[in-house]
Design brief:
This protein has about 270 residues and is α/β, with parallel strands linked by helices. About 40% of the residues lie in helices and about 10% in strands. The protein has a domain of about 140 residues.
């Protein structure tokens, strides 16, 4: 195989979308570049006998090309192809005949079956979405009381933590330590351990040793109800005596909600002295 000169190499690389560059100065440690040959190849000498073709040869070459093109088009359209020796001839005009219905390659389903399939697919997607647990909970633990609240990512965490500590101080819990858990850990819910049972295991591990405390729950899992919510909240150890519907962020802008919560906490204030 003959080596390409530099002009030919640049042409083929440009057709492939590869841009070339040349260093203006020798690069440190680089091998010396070969002398680039930018000369154009000399045209081959053509004999007069080869350059003059008979008209019959040209016509036969055109017919061969037309035959090949017709065979390719026939293969693509599924129609019978003419043999190589027939050439491209005009097809005889088809005689009108009875109209026959060509069966469709795509199965046609009745509307009720199609609608039912769509409804089942939508229900399946909704069910999968409900199985994914999204939770961001804050835990504040005192000597006798543990407060657990849903956290709002759009509100200041310092504001929510300050309100949680003030509530525990009102319940005679001055020494408070806390942590928070955000779920799911990974955006891909198919990652092992990223499901609801994994969340319950993490909460149980983090809350180990706090089983004897009274618990105050604020705005946890409002999207769940009934046994589904009860089974999720059972992972929190302790003895729940207040299960309030508003979170810390909601209480910070709701004076009426604060009074309602305090009315519930006041009945149990003496129990945690």
């Amino acid at each position: 195989m003959a080596m390409l000169n530099e002009a030919g190499r640049q042409f083929y690389l440009a057709q492939a979308g590869i841009r070339l560059w040349y260093a203006r100065a020798p690069l440190p440690g680089a091998a010396p570049s070969p002398d680039f040959d930018f000369s154009e190849p000399e045209p081959e000498a053509v004999s007069p006998q080869a350059s003059v073709e008979p008209a019959a040869s040209l016509r036969s070459g055109n017919v061969d090309r037309a035959n090949r093109l017709a065979r390719i088009q026939g293969l693509m359209s599924g129609e019978p192809q003419p043999s190589s020796g027939q050439g491209v001839a005009a097809e005889p005009e088809a005689k009108p005949g009875p109209i026959q219905k060509v069966p469709s390659s795509k199965a046609e389903l009745p509307d009720e079956i199609t609608n039912e399939a769509v409804a089942l697919a939508v229900e399946s997607e909704v069910a999968d979405a409900r199985q994914v647990l999204h939770a961001h909970w804050g835990f504040w633990i005192g000597d006798r009381v543990m407060l657990v609240s849903a956290l709002n990512d759009e509100a200041s965490f310092q504001l929510q933590e300050s309100l949680a500590k003030n509530i525990l101080r009102a319940l005679n819990q001055p020494d408070v330590k806390g942590f928070r858990i955000q779920w799911p850990v990974f955006n891909n819910t198919l990652v092992p351990g990223n499901d609801r049972s994994g969340f319950c295991r993490v909460v149980a591990d983090e809350c180990r040793g706090y089983a004897g405390r009274e618990t105050v729950l604020l705005g946890l899992a409002p999207e769940l109800s009934g046994d589904d919510r009860d089974s999720l909240l059972k992972v929190i150890p302790g003895k729940p005596f207040v299960d309030f519907g508003s979170s810390l962020a909601a209480l910070s802008t709701d004076p009426a909600g604060k009074r309602e919560l305090w009315a519930q906490l006041r009945d149990f204030r003496g129990r945690v002295r």
